[in-house]
Amino acid sequence: MISLAYPWLLLLALLPLFFLAGKRSGRGEPVDAPVIPVGHWLSGMPGVSTQGRRTPRWRQLLLLLAWLCLVLAIARPQHVGEQVQMPVSGRDLMLLVDISPSMDERDMVVQGRSINRLQAVKRVLDQFIDRREGDRLGLVLFGTQPYVQAPLTFDRETVRTLLLEAGLGMAGRATAIGDAVGLAVKRLRDRPQEQRVAILLTDGANTAGEVSPDKATEIAAAAGVRLYTIGIGADSMIQRGLLGSRRVNPSRDLDEALLTRMAEQTGGRYFRARSLPELEMIYDSIDQLEPIEQEGQFYRPVTELYVWPAGTAVALWLLLSALRLLASRARRNESGEVYHG
Question: Which positions, given as ranges, span the membrane (predicted)?
Fold first, then answer.
């Protein structure tokens, strides 16, 4: 649908009529009339004659068409599209990722190749972040100390880059789960209550920090933060040594009871990721539990069209200017021939 942003400006199209009416009234008795101090500008316009010669009708029509195009451009024609619903997520997601040295355990497998836990987390979170269009995402990395790697932002590319740059042991060798949750709650506290979500991923138990995980869980529940916890690590793997091979449990330090309690007390869920496919399924499940799109506002996309009449007006003005210049040169040549003759 085509519409005008300022339709009342179309009244400017009538100005040439007032100009013509003034010229016709000047043929009778002279009367005093207000003087508009733009005569010097109008006299330079192509198609306007000040030397008593009658302007050709076709040139007057081109000048009138240029004026109408200019008035139309000033009125700002627009194309208003069909109604579109804006996707509104309503989610503020803090990602809490354990980067303690234990995450270097190579018990995740992708395409027959063993990778460590942090590499698996980066691989899956990269896809998860890409799907959360419209969400504010934040990133907390923790070991002995937690720190905010990325504050809540709509810039998913920055969050992804900062996650991929995270290195093992950057935050210390222990695991401060309680402090990490407390820091995330502090960042989420100022957000609308129904939007506060934190996803904690770790492979161990709480071994450091000033705030216990249970106390941090109480604070999260009081602040209305839903906490989803993920325990990562295989249940068993073959360990080869000088005396042969033996089967070990690489997740023996994982405190599943604590992670389950933390999730249940805040209205979230606990997930167990024993392999890369399971980790991918967990984040797919979180996508379903915390849907991306909710009912949002509607808007109509607007495309500005004023450039077309404005461009036409400029083109006509240039054409008239060129024709006036050619006519002027032709008259000078004729005058020169008469003088020499």
Answer: 305-327
Question: Are 279 and 190 contained in the same domain?
Answer: yes
Range of the domain at 225: 92-289
Q: How far apart are CA 134 and CA 151, in angstroms?
A: 15
Q: What is the DSSP track for 103-162?
A: GG---EEETTEEE-HHHHHHHHHHHHHHH-TT-EEEEEEESSSEEEEEEEES-HHHHHHH
Residues 280-304 pLDDT 10s: 999 999 988 887 555 555 667 888 8
3-state secondary structure of 239: strand
Contact 297, 86 (CB under 8 A): yes
Domain count, the chain: 2
- pTM (two decimals): 0.61
Q: How far is CA 338 from CA 287, 325, 330, 333, 341, in A?
A: 89, 20, 13, 9, 5
Same domain, 183 and 281: yes
- Bridge-based pairing state of the strands 302-304 and 92-98: unpaired
Alpha-carbon dihedral angle through residues 170, 174, 178, 179, given to the nearest 10 degrees: -40
